[in-house]
Amino acid sequence: MTIAPKPVVLTGDRTTGPLHLGHYVGSLRARVALQEEAEQYILLADAQAFTDNVGKHHKVTSNVIEVALDYLATGIDPLKSTIFIQSQVPELAELTALFMNFVTVSRLERNPTIKEEIRLRGLERDIPVGFLTYPVSQAADIAAFRATIVPVGEDQLPMIEQTNELVRRFNDSVGAQVLLECAAQVSAVGRLPGVDGKAKMSKSLGNAIELGASSDEIRAAVRRMYTDEHHLRVTDPGRIEGNIVFAFLDAFEPNASLVNELKARYRRGGLGDTEIKRLLEGRLQALIAPIRAERQRLAADRGAVMSILKRGTEKARQKAAATLGDVKRALGLAYFD
Ligand code: TRP
User: What span, in angstroms and rounded, lies between the C-alpha atoms of 323 and 320?
Assistant: First the structure.
C-alpha cells in the first residue's frame, strides 16, 4: 500500500502587532485543524513587514515573539506545524531575487491588494521598491515550500493569483514543472468586522479584540459593539444586517440554530441588545480565557519560545534550500555541482 503524501500548507502573518479575533476567524482556526492532516509551515513575515515599516524596525522585530505566542496559545503545535522566521531563511530572499525577472512592474502595479494599500497609505509614486515587490517575495515563500494550500484572508486572493502566474511563467520558461501552483483556502465565515462596525477588525483602527485581551477588555468591547440604532426598546423590531453582535455570533456561537432563532426573534421584536450581548460576551470570555492563560504561561519562558522558532527555522531552511537548488539547476545556475 502506498501512502499518499500529505498536502503542504504555507501561511503566515506580518509581525506588526499581536493577533486578534479577526485573525482567529480568518485563518488561525483553520491552521489548528490543518496541522492534523497536512505538512504545515507558518511564517512570521518580519521581512515582509519591513517593506512598509521603514524607521519602525523595532516594532516589527519585537512583535515576532508576540505573534509566535499567539500561534502557540491558540493551539498551533510545534510538533505538528513548523513555525519559522522569514528573515532568517535567506533562501527565500535569493528565490525572490530570481523571481523578480519573471514579473513586470506594470503587473505589480495592477495587483489589487497593492493598489489598495498604496491608496490607503497615500503613497502614489513614492512607493518603496520593496513594498511594490512584496508579492514576489510572497510568491517565493509559497513556491519554496511547494505549498498547494494557502489559508489566508480574502484580501490575499490577488497574492495567490500572482503566485500562480509567476509559477506558470517560470515553469514555461524552463520547460519543466519545477514549481507547483497553489490554491487559497478562505474561511467560510468571511471577514470579521471591527467592534465599531467598520468593515475590518484591525489593531491600527483601534477596533480589535486581541487574543490576549483581559476579561475587562472583552466586556468593554462587547458593550461598545454597534447593533441597530433604531432598536431602542426591547419590543421594537431590529435589524440583523450591519448588526455587529450577530456578525460575531455567526462567527463564534457554534449552535447555528440558536443564532437563527435569535435572529428571528430580534427581527420580530422582543429581544433586547443586552441579552444577545450577554450571550456573545460569554462565548468570547470562554474562548479567550484559556488562550490568555496559555499565552501568559508561555510568555514567562521566552527562551523556550525562541528555541521552538530556531528549530522551526532550521527545518524550513532545509526545505527552502532544496527548492532553491531545483530552481537554480533549472536555470543553469549550478556551475559547481
Ligand atoms: N501577506 C501576509 C499578511 O499580510 C503575510 C504573508 C507573507 C503570507 N508571506 C505569506 C501569507 C505567504 C501567506 C503565504 O499577513
Answer: 5
Q: Within a 13 Å sphere around the CA of 294, how many CA atoms are in the beta-carbon half?
A: 17
How far, rounded to the nearest angstrom, does the alpha carbon of residue 211 sit from its chain's CA centroid? 14
Cβ contact 247:259 at 8 Å: no
Specify whether the CB–CB gap between 65 and 35 falls below 8 A.
Answer: no
Closest residue by Cα to residue 334 from 179, 177, 181, 174: 174
Tell me, in angstroms, the distance from the centre of ligand 1 to residue 51's CA: 12
11 within ligand 1 shell (Cβ under 6 A): yes
Burial class (CB in 10 A: 0-12, 13-18, 19+), 147: buried
- Measured in degrees and rounded to the nearest 5, phi and psi for residue 151 equal -80, 115
Using the structure block, give the residue that is written with the C-alpha cell 530570481: 98
Three-class SS of residue 39?
Answer: strand
Distance from residue 138's CA to the centre of ligand 1 (Å): 6
Q: What is the 3 state secondary structure string of 116-177?
A: HHHHHHCCCCCCCHHHHCHHHHHHHHHHHCCCCEEECCHHHHHHHHHHHHHHHHHHHHHCCC
Span 218-227, pLDDT tens digits: 999 999 998 8
Distance 152 CA to ligand 1 centre (A): 8
| Ligand 1 touching residue 95 (CB < 6 A) | no
Q: Which residues of the chain have pLDDT under 70?
A: 1-2
Question: What is the Å distance from ligand 1's center to 140 Cα?
Answer: 11
What confidence score (pLDDT) does residue 2 get? 67
Within the chain, residue ranges assigned H as helices are 21-23, 29-34, 46-50, 57-73, 90-99, 105-109, 112-121, 129-132, 134-144, 157-174, 215-224, 244-252, 256-268, 273-299, 302-331
Whole-number pLDDT of residue 87: 98
pLDDT at 231: 82
Predicted confidence at residue 123, as pLDDT, reads: 75
**CA pair distance 28, 23, nearest whole angstrom:** 6
